[in-house]
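$ ./design --mode recover --in tokens.txt
reading tokens...
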């Protein structure tokens, strides 16, 4: 029980103090059935080309869309380089600590729960703004990073790329006790099982999105072994070998990339030396971006800038962008059949009920 208590404490620590509010984000209204009970925010700069790219950004526990945007600096970069943003946001009705429910079966299935709500938000953005459906990307931190894994797995045809920061692989947990074990790096499935989970999440057969994985080497909230598991999951899907195609050091941090036959970095990883749980930032220097704070950590390099550049959004084209990837057949602002099931808490064995009651206060379950 001591380990569970430690995890609860770590995830509940940054509650005090309101995050600064962004002035760029506007509320997204009437985007579908919204079975996941989320809210949404968006930003489209006047500088965006027609059509232009869209980046979906998923905040972490205890965070809001505006607070995450202020810290990571996405809207400032979008204003400068001309791309649109969508910020789904968790509600306390779903999770008292504002964590996306990446471990609840009804929220991580295609056309169900929170995953469906995010997909409907994307459909609304494409219908209402000049968005290029072949250039949609998704990124997130922690629970938002795990939810990024969910979106890439359940709707892979929608995304050209994704970036998972301090997150976990798709399908690694289907309940709260299991989620805590996976966060500690315990009992992670092997590569074949992880890849099969993504293949079974939709009828999609490829091509697969390019995936960038970011993790602090000193993260004690989500064990860095989870970064290895995410890399293995997507490397297997892309049919890439275990050894990286290239390995180098960027601003003092290890960077590895696995390239496909076209030379594209289909999977890459940044392991941030000495950093704990959060988003790596560079808030000073020649290209400052973002603002340091809770879970927004100075690291001497900006994950926001490097992720955007890997997608060709930051002023430089990148081998990580697959220009031959076909656009989805349809991304529309229309309802999608909601196949949500009953809440997982009602189906858990009685032996876990006492643990679950304690975990509700930590925001790990409804």
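writing sequence...
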């Amino acid at each position: 029980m001591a380990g569970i208590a430690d995890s609860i404490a770590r995830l509940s620590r940054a509650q005090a103090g309101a995050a600064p509010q962004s002035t760029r984000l506007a509320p997204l209204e009437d985007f579908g059935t919204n079975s996941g009970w989320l809210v949404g925010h968006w930003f489209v700069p006047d500088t965006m080309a027609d059509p232009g790219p869209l980046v979906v950004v998923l905040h972490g526990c205890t965070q809001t869309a505006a607070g995450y945007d202020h810290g990571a600096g996405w809207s400032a970069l979008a204003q400068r380089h001309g791309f649109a943003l969508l910020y789904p946001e968790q509600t306390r009705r779903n999770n008292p600590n504002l964590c996306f429910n990446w471990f609840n079966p009804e929220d991580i299935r295609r056309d169900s729960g929170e995953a469906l709500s995010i997909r409907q938000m994307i459909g609304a953005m494409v219908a209402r703004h000049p968005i290029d459906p072949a250039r949609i990307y998704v990124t997130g931190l922690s629970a938002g990073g795990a939810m990024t894994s969910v979106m890439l797995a359940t709707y892979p045809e929608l995304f050209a790329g994704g970036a998972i920061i301090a997150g976990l692989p798709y399908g690694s947990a289907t309940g709260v006790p299991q989620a805590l074990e996976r966060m500690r790096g315990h009992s992670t499935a092997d590569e074949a099982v992880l890849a099969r989970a993504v293949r079974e999440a939709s009828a999609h057969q490829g091509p697969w999105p390019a995936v960038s994985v970011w993790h602090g080497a000193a993260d004690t909230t989500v064990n860095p072994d989870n970064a290895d598991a995410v890399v293995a999951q997507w490397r297997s899907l892309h049919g890439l070998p275990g050894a990286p195609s290239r390995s180098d050091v960027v601003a003092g941090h290890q960077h590895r990339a696995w390239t496909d036959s076209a030379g594209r970095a289909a999977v890459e990883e940044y392991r941030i030396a000495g950093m704990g749980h959060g988003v790596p930032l560079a808030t000073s220097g020649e290209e400052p971006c973002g603002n340091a704070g809770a879970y927004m950590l100075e690291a001497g390099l900006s994950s926001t800038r490097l992720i955007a550049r890997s997608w060709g959004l930051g002023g430089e084209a990148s081998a990580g962008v697959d220009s031959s990837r076909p656009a989805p057949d349809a991304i529309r602002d229309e309802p999608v059949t909601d196949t949500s099931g009953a809440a997982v808490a009602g189906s858990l064995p009685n032996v876990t009920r006492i643990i679950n009651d304690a975990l509700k206060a930590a925001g790990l379950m409804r």
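exit 0
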